[in-house]
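User: Okay, second chain of the day. Same drill as before: sequence in, structure tokens out.
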Amino acid sequence: MSNGIVFQVETTRILQILAREIYDSPLALLRENLQNAYDAVRMRFANTGTLAEGGRIDIRVGNGEISITDNGIGMNEGVLRENFWKAGSSGKRSDGARRAGVVGSFGIGAMANFGVCTRLMVETRSEGSEEVLRSVAERDSLKIAEECISLERIALERDVGTTVTALLDNEHPISPEQALQYLKPYVGLLQVPVYFNGDLISGNTIESRLPIAGRTFVQLGVRALNDNLCRGSFDVRADSNGQILIFVNDITLGGANIEGSMALVQAGGQLMGLRSYFGLAPIPAIGNYQFGGFANLSFLQPTAGREALSRESIDQVTHLVSLAERAASELLATTTGADKNNAFLQWLASHARYDLADMVSIQVLPENKDIPLGEIKSYIGTQTTHYYTGNDRQIVSTFANEGAHLLQVAQSNPRRQVQLHYVTNILKIPLVPDSAQVTRIYKGTDMTMREASVLVRIASILRDDYLISDVDLVLADISHGVTVLPEKLGEQLKIYIAKSSPLLPPLLEFYDKAYELFAQFMKDFVRVHIYPRIQQFVPSSTRDGVDALRKMLQRNRELYSYEETDLGDLEGVLGDYLSGSVSLTQVLHEALTRAKPQTQTVSREQVGSVENEVPGIAESPVTQPPEEGLEFGPSPPIIRDSISSDMKILTTSEKYPLLNNFTMLLGLSDRLMRTEAEFFRTPHTTRILWGGHRVVYIFTEATGRLSLYYDIELRKPIEHAKAGGGMFPTTTLITKKRIFVPIPDMLADEFMISAGPKQFFVRFDVLSSDVI
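Assistant: Same drill. Structure tokens below.
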């Protein structure tokens, strides 16, 4: 007698485990049954390989029940027994099924329904048969190797096809809204009409489902490419920003033709895998362009449960995407879009295809222009040129000038990597040297009177306006195309100026033809072209210089801070002081707080033109170089202290480079001129803020330790839409009697004098910080 153990299976439990381990969601039964219906339709209407009209699928979801009806090929008794109800068996592995483009092949979908439903009923009539079969399975009655599924022939009039009806258990309810959202990615592109509770949810085109609405794509070309596995024809298009759209057709895999195509859009979200337009699973994002879209390919194989595609399928798509990126890069490289597409730059760097970087631009200084790398040679001509990988302003100002170009390499990859390789290996341009060298010094006997006058005038301006007491100016030949080269020798600042510099001829011409303007133009020349090279040596730009300036301003403020009109009503606080309840420091603070603002009045007679009041501005040969970066650096003022003007506002209809294109200048108050004029003679930045009744200027000297604010309170509020502000290029104009500052164009109307005089209140003060 045997003591063996009988093998037993808890059928219901096994079916639940089977479904939950294989399928990603209870909703998967919808996908499985719908895919079976779609395959049946294709086997009937696409048995020649081409889908004919006539197929249809209807889905009903509601009241705890799901039904899917198709007019496909249907099932006879043999198929029903051996394929539908037999787990692991499939009738879709035949040549005919493959020719029809069926999607499924695993043969486990029917049994998996019982992970979420308690009853499954199938009604079917096969093509060429008048017989209708009905088969019902109850989950609680299922037993392995027992006849537990009913089968009967019924007298029912119905078309060829199949209806599968599933009764959901209470643990897995599915609402119509859930079902619809779940199904859309899988059936939206099917060319067979699919109706969900009566509404059509299929029939979309691939192009209509791409995230390209509102964008226009221009064809760049069609390129046929292949590798050792795949081949395809790549129709490459790009929008105005150089973003890529590709349609892939005529695909072969291992020499065999593949049914289907691909539509790839750069940064287009997920890349959805399809077979015969039926959604399978997303394909992991691959490549530099991060293509999304659709890959409708007959070789795609889903894993069981279709949570993902097989590794082999993904590898094969990767080959095609790699070819698509190559086609996109080779065609985009000839357009201006190449410079706008960061993914293109990444592709060039990762594939070492720097030969395709002709249209990638690089910043050329001092012009501050973005020039395509392929045009650099013709742009620079025979001028001395270097490239620079840093952002030190001193190096930039030394090696980027009127006689030499500097290529400013980008700070971030992949643009930096592409530019560096192209500049060094293709253009063969040298790196900026450690330092420029003086190759010849011109003595007094080698110079003309005009050249000597220029050097003397520069030295005088540096001494008087920039507080550099010991400076030596030398005319020289300087290597690397450098025009101005400063050198600190102990306490002395030595400045070499290139004799061949293109900066000198305009000044020498004015010396000969308009000597009366020569002095003021030399001030402009020093401000614009010398100061940026010597900024770190100017006392007012250093800590010691700021301390000296602070003491000077403090002395001025003490001299003028006790005017009777500025005391305000202080009897109360003075009483507190006398009673001992507050300190003298608090009294002084309160005095400043309660000080009456000054009233500034401007009449029509005090508005003059720039051209009349500051002659020579229009004729100045000096132009401002473009500012680098997002913020404007500190700059010296425009000094015209030989000019005396009683005007309080200056206007012009022209846009002069020396005035940074401002067309209106405002004269600051008389008292500020008396007390804080020294501040404005130092290099400073200019920030202007406005809103409500207020326009606030904030001027900050070069180290950032001292700021002067000038607060203007207008009688009428500024239009709400005009509120704003920011950094502006310093355009402070100092004359003998007044300091003028720029008024942004959008505020010009607020200061325009049309009828009677205009009044506004002003307050100002110097703020100090020990933190740089």
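The chain has 20 helices and 36 strands.

User: Thanks, on to the next one.
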